[in-house]
Amino acid sequence: MECEGYLYVRNRCTDDKIYWRCLKRAGCTGRIQTTVLLDDGQVPTIISRPTEHNHEPDGEKVVRGCVVAEMRIKVKTAPLQQLKSVYDTAISTTSANETDSLLLPSYQSVATILKRQRSHDIPKLPKTRSEINLVGKWCETLDGKKFLLYSSTENCNDIIIFASEMCLLRLANVSNNLPGRNIQMRP
Question: Model pTM?
């Protein structure tokens, strides 16, 4: 969290307050209290004014921190979007002046942060066939249609069929017109 040019990290929470401390741990006693963060992305309200810091505000870290936070939110809301695309969009839409634009992070410096954020929302790749567990949104197309048509989990020779119903119907119609080919649709 940023306030008056200082960056804060969450220290502890109660039911109705969040207590923040200064990002610089080395003896700085800067603190602030806010209301609880809401799920709708609303910015928390500052309850108490910031206490004194033992250092000057760090404009470089504030600019970088705000841009990285924006990228992390985008990755969380759209985990399948390419990370470089998220980075490019965030950098191009940042309203930084010429001095601040030199402080913006490079893609290499934030790639690991964005990959880690995305790993919270996307299941890990299975190492064996028995670890494949497709449920919920991972069985649907982006527009919500079912594309995992069959998955048997009885033994290690599982059969998994990915296709939309429309594609299978097209395949069945094409195969009927090809000599020597016989593909049948079964529920």
Answer: 0.54
Strand 17-22: give its sheet, edge to edge: 2-3, 6-13, 17-22, 31-35, 46-48
Q: What is the DSSP string of 74-93?
A: HHHH-TTS-HHHHHHHHHHH
Residue 150 in any domain: the answer is: yes
Tokens of 96: 């930084």
How confident is the model over 97-116, as pLDDT tens digits? 544 566 778 889 889 999 98
68 and 104 part of one domain: yes
The tokens describing 183, both together, are: 């593909």
Going through the chain in order, the beta strands assigned E by DSSP cover 2-3, 6-13, 17-22, 31-35, 46-48, 148-151, 160-162
| 97 within a domain of the structure (yes/no) | yes
Mean pLDDT of 58-75: 81
Q: What token pair was written down for 77?
A: 């809301």
Residue 88 above 50 pLDDT? yes
The residue whose two tokens read 């989990």 is 153
Nearest-angstrom CA–CA distance, 117 and 74: 10
Q: How many domains does the chain have?
A: 3
Tokens encoding 114: 């964005």
